[in-house]
Amino acid sequence: MSCISKHHLDENSLLGVWKIEEDIETLSDLVYLNDSDRAKFDSFRSKSRKLEFLSVRALLRELIGPQASIVYDRNNKPYLKDGSHFISISHSNNLTAILLSSNERVGVDLEYMSANITAFAFKFLNRNEIITTDTDRKRYHLYIHWCAKEALYKICDKEGIRLRSDITIEPFDVANSGEITGRVRSESMDESFTLRYSRYENYTIVWTKKLFADDDPEKLKICSPDARR
User: Fold this and answer.
1) Which residues are paired to 15 by β-bridges?
2) Backbone phi, then psi, for 67, in 5-degree steps?
3) At what angle do helices 35-43 and 47-64 cross, to 10 degrees?
4) I need a labelling partner for 75 at 20 to 30 A (CA). Which of 94, 106, 134, 137 fits?
5) Where in the chain are the domains?
6) What is the DSSP letter of 118?
7) Would you place residue 2 in the very low, low, confident or very high pLDDT band (cuts 50, 70, 90)?
């Protein structure tokens, strides 16, 4: 198996990373696909998309067992069918990441650092965000910002949030791993978040988890999309 990281963030939260080294047949043998999963899997034309789909389920099985099953809402946001955990999923190149929590909302983003990110950084950076001028660290610094904003977009689950203008990452000194603060301010919300970031080979990964200001921990109940309707 290729689960390279299984990290308990606390007693309720778990972060896992899977490195895809298997072929489709090998990964297929590691997971069970129900009829819905099989139909979705068969609809993919590319080998990479099939491998990604299988790696997510293989990693989820490794993290919380074979009973876990992913379903999607009408916006294609993933949930666990049994409602046992909040879940966030990210995939890039040959890595797949899953963040789970039984009591907090979650967001994770993973990126392989291959693109010329400087060329399109203007699309997600705003004037309050500061990037190092050190050429050896600049690309990683930019990827941390990008991943952090994607993770915040996922955890907020709000339509209309814009990465550039509505999400701000507070200035920080970049290291191989660390903690940063991000703020989401839009017409629908105003929340601050603590995020963790780390580097693995040529990948950047950022994750966050939180109860929102209007969440009541005594009443907050995880449920599948079907139960939410």
Assistant:
1) 7, 99
2) -75, -15
3) 150
4) 94
5) 3-103, 108-210
6) G
7) confident
* Torsion region of 160: left, alpha or beta (phi above 0 gives left; psi -120 to 50 gives alpha): left
Enclosing H/E stretch for 68: none
Specify the pTM. 0.92
200 alpha carbon, distance to own chain's centre: 15
Which one, of 117, 108, 82, lies nearest residue 223 by Cα? 82
The residue with tokens 């209309």 is 160
**Which helix (H) or strand (E) covers residue 185, if one does?**
strand 177-185
Question: What is the C-alpha separation between 33 and 79, in angstroms, rounded?
Answer: 16
Domain covering 3-103 in this structure, CATH number: 3.90.470.20
What pLDDT, in 10s, does the model give residues 171-201? 999 999 999 999 999 988 899 999 999 999 9
Token pair listed for 118: 């400087």
Options 3.30.70, 3.90.470, 1.10.150, 3.30.565; CATH of 108-210:
3.90.470
**For residue 218, what pLDDT is reported?**
59
Give the model confidence (pLDDT) of 72-124 as tens digits: 888 788 999 999 999 999 999 999 999 999 999 999 999 999 878 999 999 99
Q: Give the separation between CA 40 and CA 50, rounded to whole angstroms.
A: 9
150: helix, coil or strand? helix
Torsion of CA 100, 102, 103, 108, to 10 degrees: 10
From the CA atom positions of the chain, what is the Rg in Å? 18
How far apart are the C-alpha atoms of 182 and 166, rounded to whole Å?
Answer: 10
